Sequence to fold (562 residues):
Amino acid sequence: MIVAEQKSLEEIKKLVGTAKKVLVVGCGTCVTVCFAGGSREAAIVAAELRMASKLDGNNKSVADVTVQRQCEWEYLDTIAEQVKDVDVVLSLGCGIGVQAIAEHFPNTWVVPGLNTRFMGLPTEQGIWAERCAACGDCVLGLTGGVCPIARCSKSLLNGPCGGSIDGHCEVNAEIPCGWQLIYDRLSSMGKLEALMDIQPPKNWRAARDGGPRKIVREDLRLGKEE
Amino acid sequence: MTSNNGYLSGSNLERVLKNGHFAVTAELGPPQNADREVIRKKAALLKGYCDAVNLTDNQTAIVRMSSIGAGTLLVQEGLEPVIQMTCRDRNRLAMQSDLLGAYALGMRNLLCLSGDHQTFGNHPEAKNVYDIDSVHMVQMVAGMRDRRIFQNGEAFKGQEPRFFVGAAESPFAHPVDFRPYRLAKKVKAGADFIQTQLVYDIEAFKIFMEKVRALGIHKQTYLMAGVGPLKSPAMAKYMIENVPGILIPNSLINRMNQAGAPWAGKSKDELTKEDKKARSAAWGAQGIQICVELIQQLRQIEGVAGVHIMAIEWEDAVKAIVEGAGLYPRPEVSRE
Fold:
């Protein structure tokens, strides 16, 4: 899932600025699951903004609504009327949600209430960790299902570097060494020989380095009208 | 194409190693400013006491004079540099163009490193590069030299950069069992020489070398063991706790403590300036003595082709170490 966390109320207040009518838009997918921008959080942020605006003496009207997925037009259509009516939309979606709102409602000012952090999973209650860097050319088949791009701080393809110690990364003791994880996994599966080959340099064009990415699936596209 | 009478690069370091001499390299840390005099002064301390001088590349991710810039000054001073280059700060384009320039400026040795992560240093907010890794860098530079191709496979005309290509290995970093194999990968990639992380634990290093020999790596590359004088018991403690892959046996820590024994048990305020100076000198002398003994022991291990002395911000210790280890004067190997 996409993992995000809320911006501070201070920053959100600055982003909302002097707008009188505010619509907080939550998202019912990833950010709901990571407790950053679902309906519950949207209601809380809306209440916080109302209280803050009362204290600051610039009474704002703040409503909240949550759509199933901010990143798809059809779900955004369901809030078109509410959006039209406000000075600013505070999106509690990920960065994709914020941009979807901006694209779908060209006359609406939208600001982000979250910082989109990474693609990952909850490892235990209240803890999420990064797992995928969307490099566009998956190497997990070479490394036993542990990603060297996302989980090694240096994205080494022929690791580990000399900074691996007691299972953690040189960056800090909170980061497991991705290459120790790869080594342990391949070792336990009896497949260490996979590490003997030199993996060639990565083609970063498939990642963000090639510019903004797009997928076109001709087999799924609707036929152009004659 | 080979040139220089069968040498890959014709560098002094390569010639010394190829002719079977026990090689000595030393490390020089460029300053955090643009003062060429710093390089000259440090070069003067090292001249004649080593076969080549490693110039660190923004060591510990702190901005310093570039290794190629400092290397140019070193060439002017009549010393031979080993340019260190990390994968942290440059992508493959920048690496190759800098290396073309470095060769044109007279540099002949290169040490390819991953590099300390930038979060350690003084610009922790920097974007990290890590476009390619150190194994790829070795392959790339060997390819430029031996096949006259850029990393992308494209052939180029004219003078190719002919570097003596080095890589690093940390024998005691984790996972320890994999280290000899990772070293083998670097050698397979084309590493002509290896410089290791600091070795203090000879017994542990012997075990590492046994595995290296079992893989036959010592016959495919020149392996130089890293050594460095301890400055104080506190430095030893710091390294054990903070530098991955550093093992220091208690016996050596005890010797460092004993060197400071005359001043032990006194609080900071009780020690005069002279006391502290005398204690530092006693520690330093013991550190140098330990380093000399380590070199003598390393020299006995089959497959160790030389030592790389890392006397960090203590370049004047190198003379005493090299002389003490009986490695002075350095051999003069002709280019013929």
